[in-house]
């Protein structure tokens, strides 16, 4: 009986410590920035606790303005679209501001996490990029998608992020490299099983990336087979610098 009581007390203390830790994290001082995900906060609660009265007013005015003539869901989607437009213009700072605005409207929106992951990928912060893509995939909701079957584009972008990270781990951490290559393989093979839903312009990339994923996973025969299949379907890909380098890498492996 005493043992059970001690265990219960220990569990209660642990729970209290966790709660206190969460509260401390949410109330901890943080320097907010427009150009960081979630304005540099670790959570919405931490952001609320650290924003100034002026910023609070600006946030409330923004939400009021964008939802005046459209629903909240429509406002989120239009704000997300503006984020992608900024990325297309290579303006990652403005893109981050737009995705942060969408985050103010919905803290669990996969589009926002997708945007954060893409921006970090562009900036070369590959681990952060992959981490955000993990979260975006985990929280994907067709109801929140900007366009139908958005998950396929998300998978494509995530696969590219995973493979870039896989490349960085190739020499120093082969196990991690293969882990991210395996993640890419899973997404890419799923995408290619739904080619009728894939945008035509990204099919060659998906096929080629699968070749690279097999290679990074040290399955060189499959890498060669997938690459040859890609070239047969899209001969123009052979002239791409990435394809030229990849063909050389395959030859070095004797396949």
Question: Strand portion, in percent?
Answer: under 5%
CATH architecture of the domain at 147-255: Alpha Horseshoe
Name the CATH homologous superfamily of the domain at 147-255. Tetratricopeptide repeat domain
Helix content: over 70%
CATH topology of the domain at 147-255: Serine Threonine Protein Phosphatase 5, Tetratricopeptide repeat
In CATH's first tier, which class of the domain at 147-255 applies?
Mainly Alpha
Q: Give the integer mean of the pLDDT values.
A: 91
Shape descriptor reads elongated
The tally of strands reads: 0
Distance between the termini: 67 Å
Order of helices and strands: HHHHHHHHHHHH
Given as residue ranges, the uncertain stretches (5+ residues, pLDDT < 50) are: 1-20
Query: Major sheet: size, sense and barrel closure?
Result: none
Secondary-structure-based class equals mainly alpha
Radius of gyration: 22 Å
Discrete helix count: 12
Question: What does this protein look like?
Answer:
By secondary structure, the protein is mainly alpha-helical. The protein has a domain at 147-255: Serine Threonine Protein Phosphatase 5, Tetratricopeptide repeat, CATH 1.25.40.10. It contains twelve helices and no strands. The longest helix is centred in the first third of the chain and has 26 residues, at 2-27.
């Amino acid at each position: 009986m005493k043992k059970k009581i001690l265990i219960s007390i220990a569990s209660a203390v642990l729970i209290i410590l966790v709660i206190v830790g969460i509260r401390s994290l949410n109330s901890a001082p943080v320097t907010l920035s427009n150009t960081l995900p979630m304005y540099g906060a670790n959570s919405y609660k931490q952001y609320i606790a650290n924003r100034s009265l002026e910023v609070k007013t600006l946030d409330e005015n923004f939400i009021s303005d964008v939802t005046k003539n459209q629903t909240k869901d429509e406002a989120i989607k239009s704000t997300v679209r503006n984020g992608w437009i900024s990325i297309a213009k290579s303006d990652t700072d403005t893109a981050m501001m737009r995705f942060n605005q969408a985050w103010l409207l919905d803290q669990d929106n996969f589009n926002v996490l997708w945007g954060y992951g893409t921006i970090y990928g562009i900036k070369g912060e590959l681990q952060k990029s992959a981490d955000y893509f993990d979260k975006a995939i985990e929280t994907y909701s067709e109801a929140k998608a900007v366009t139908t079957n958005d998950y396929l584009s998300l998978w494509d972008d995530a696969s590219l992020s995973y493979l870039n990270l896989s490349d960085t781990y190739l020499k120093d951490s082969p196990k991690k490299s293969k882990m991210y290559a395996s993640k890419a393989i899973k997404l890419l093979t799923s995408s290619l099983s739904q080619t009728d839903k894939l945008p035509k312009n990204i099919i060659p990339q998906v096929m080629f990336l699968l070749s690279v994923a097999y290679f990074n996973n040290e399955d060189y025969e499959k890498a060669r087979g997938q690459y040859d299949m890609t070239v047969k379907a899209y001969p123009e890909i052979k002239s791409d610098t990435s394809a030229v380098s990849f063909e050389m890498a395959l030859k070095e492996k004797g396949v």
